Amino acid sequence: MKFVVFPPVDDRRLAAIRSAAGPMQVAAPADANAALREIVDADAFFGKLTPDLLAAATQLKWVQSPTASLEHYLFPELIEHPLRLSNMRGLFSDVIADHVMGYVLCFARQLHRYLRQQINHTWSPIGGEQTRPGFATGPGQVSPIDRAHQHLGDCTLGVVGVGHIGSEIVRRAAAFGMTVLGVDPYPRPVEGVLDDVWALDRLDELLAASDYVVIAAPHTPETEKLFDAQRISWMKSSAVLINIGRGIIVDLQDLTDALEGNVIAGAALDVFETEPLPEDHPLWGMENVILTPHVAAASPRVAERHLDVLLENIRRFVAGEEPTNLVDKTQWF
Ligand SMILES: NC(=O)C1=CN([C@@H]2O[C@H](COP(=O)(O)OP(=O)(O)OC[C@H]3O[C@@H](n4cnc5c(N)ncnc54)[C@H](O)[C@@H]3O)[C@@H](O)[C@H]2O)C=CC1
Ligand SMILES: O=C(O)C(=O)CO
Description:
32% of the residues lie in helices and 13% in strands. It is an alpha/beta fold. It has two domains: 2-91 and 300-319, NAD(P)-binding Rossmann-like Domain (Rossmann fold), CATH 3.40.50.720; 92-131 and 138-291, Rossmann fold (3-Layer(aba) Sandwich). It is elongated, with a radius of gyration of 23 Å. InterPro entries: D-isomer_DH_CS, D-isomer_DH_NAD-bd, NAD(P)-bd_dom_sf.
C-alpha cells in the first residue's frame, strides 16, 4: 500500500504520518511533476488533489482533504470517482461556537457600540440619557436603556445547519438560558438540549421566531444564496443574522439593503461572498454590523487536531476501516 502527501508538510508532521502508516509506504513528493509520478500507484492521498493528479492515479481508494469545506476542492471527476473522501470537519466546532456567542453577547449587551464610544471617550448609555438603568422610570417600568439591552433568557437563537458546529452553538446558547431552535436536512437531536431539530421545510418558521439566526451550514448547490432579500424578510425586524458558514450562502447586496432599510436589526459576519470584503463596502461603516476576517476557527489547538484526524484516518485505512469524517461527494458535505 502507498500513501502520497502533496503539497509537502513539515518534517515533524511527516514523521508522525510515517509512524501512523506503519507498513504502508509514504511518499512526499517535492513538486507537482514528482507528485504526478508518485500518485500512479498510490492507494491513498492527503493534500490538494487536482484533476491532473486524479487522472494519473490508477488505484486511489481514499483521499483526505485538508479543509472542512469542499466547494473549492471538489471537481466533477472526483465526485464521480469511487474513491472515499474525508474532510476536516469537527475540528473547530467549540471555538467557532465561542466566536458566535461573542457576537451574541456583543449585540445583547451593546458591547460593539460601547467599544466605538470608548475610542472617543464618550459616556452615553445606549437607549437614553439616564445613568442608572433599571431605576430611572420607577418600579415595574422598563426604561429605554433597559429596553436597549437584552436579557438572553428572553431570546431565541435559531441555527441553520445543526452539524458539528451548529450543535456546539446550540449547547452554548442553551447554557446562556436562550431558547434554541434548529433546522437541518438530516435532523439529529443535540442530546439533552434540543431533541426536536426541525426539517428544512420549517426554515421560515425558525426565521420568524428567532432573535438571532446563525448560519452554520456548508456551501452546497442548495445553500448558495439561500439568504436572499425574501428569506431575510422572514426574520424579525429586531433580529440579528450571524454567518460563520460560508459567505456565498448570504446575498451580500440583499443583506446590505436589508440592514440599510431596517428590515433586520444587525448582522455579524465571519465569511463573505467576496473575501476580503472590499475596502469601500458599506458594511464596514455600519454601527449595527460586526465583521471578522474569516477567523472564527482560529485557535492554537487547530493544528494538532488537524494532525490527529489525519493520523487516525491513516490508521483506519491501514486497518481496512472506514475513515472518520466521510463525505457524500454528491452533496458536498
Ligand atoms: N468560519 C470558518 O472559519 C469556518 C467555517 N466552516 C464552515 O462551517 C460549515 C459547517 O461545518 P461543520 O458543522 O463542521 O460541518 P458538518 O458537516 O458537521 O455540519 C453541517 C450541517 O449542515 C447541514 N446542512 C447541509 N445542507 C444544509 C441546508 N441546505 N440547510 C441547512 N443545513 C444544511 C448538514 O446536514 C450538517 O448537519 C462547513 O461546511 C464550512 O463551510 C468550517 C470551518 C471553519
Ligand atoms: O476549513 C474550513 O472550511 C475553514 O473555513 C477554515 O477556516
